[in-house]
Amino acid sequence: MSKTVVVLGAGVGGLATAAELRKALPAQDRILLIDRTFSGNLGLSLLWVMRGWRTPEQVRVKPSAAALPGVQMVTAEVDWIDEAEQTVRCRDGDPIRYDALVIALGAALDVAAVAGLAEALEAGVASQFYTLEGAADLHRRIGALKSGRLMVLVLGVPFKCPAAPFEAAFLIADQLGARHSGGAVRVDTFTPDTLPMPVAGPEVGKSLVSMMEAKGIGFQGGKSATHIDANTRTVEFADGTTEAFDRLVVIPPHRSEAATLISTGIAPNGWIPVDPHTLATSAPGVWAIGDVTALMLPNGKPLPKAAIFAQAEAEVAAHQVARHLGYDAPDTRFTGEGVCYVEIGGGLAAKGEGDFFATPVPRVALRDPSPGYHAEKAQEERDWLARWNIGEASAETSWNRRIS
């Protein structure tokens, strides 16, 4: 009897899982990939859109049937996941019964979580770069900023890509050019964490702070924002201090896309706890990967939310699903190894890499910035776009393209 496996979400993790499942399962088994739009992007491209090195259309991911042979692509909004009945209910459709389920729904921006944030975004005094449209709009606003203070503000943890706020600060300073280096525009970063990228350890955080200081970018850690006033252009913090800005760039709080869809308690704090090695949830026959998860490391901190991990987890989940269904598949385990690039402008990028499962703390090193790491990141983007945009017109994504 044929089996049905459902994958929810067509981001980095969901796409890779569906493709790997098709290789691992017999042809008669159905693989359904469900997504609301089947239109996305690779997270690393967002900062390049913000910098003006890419346009939104150049970096959209629009997977087609040609990119996923043997996978049924269902465009739908998921309303409910019933683990007890092993069904997924989509809006305007019949319930879909599954034999195994992989949840890869990712994380969404929660602009209502901080008082005044939605109003500041609506008024145009605050911007974000976590969407293609937001990143492109921010590029234009940076170009028009002649003087004042630009604040890069992390509004909550966890968030997608721990390096992103600081990478954004580097690239904003790079776009500002003489306006920043000459002192007309000041760039400062604020985060609730004591140091950048705390899960990678204090040495990595201190290295990033030193790199920012060398570029004239300020850093203030341990700053939790409680209110944004769009009229006065100020941010209030939990420690009672207030900071003024002329342009605010926010990393909005994130929330799980799956928390309200699940019938049982497998997402007690919104995020879904998983076995760190197999990605299995507490529900039989259900796995979760990528940004939707709360994968705890040996030091008690969660694994960073990053595409590199979602892609590695996809192979593990696919093989574990195949084994669960009774097939002879490898007992692949997630190792916790990963890399992260940090753009600093001028065609240079630093590279963090290491073992996040190391004990007692992750073993991560930050390599000095070089053109080679910048090129590696650009190649990753090209490979991803080429893999999924089969049938789409090719877009020019040369890493040395510059748009002033």
UniProtKB/TrEMBL annotation:
Pfam families: Pyr_redox_2. InterPro entries: FAD/NAD-bd_sf, FAD/NAD-binding_dom, SQRD. Residues 4-314 form the FAD/NAD(P)-binding domain. PANTHER family: FAD-DEPENDENT PYRIDINE NUCLEOTIDE-DISULPHIDE OXIDOREDUCTASE, PTHR43755. This is Dehydrogenase. The lineage of its organism: Bacteria, Bacillati, Actinomycetota, Actinomycetes, Mycobacteriales. GO terms for molecular function: oxidoreductase activity. It comes from Mycobacterium gordonae.
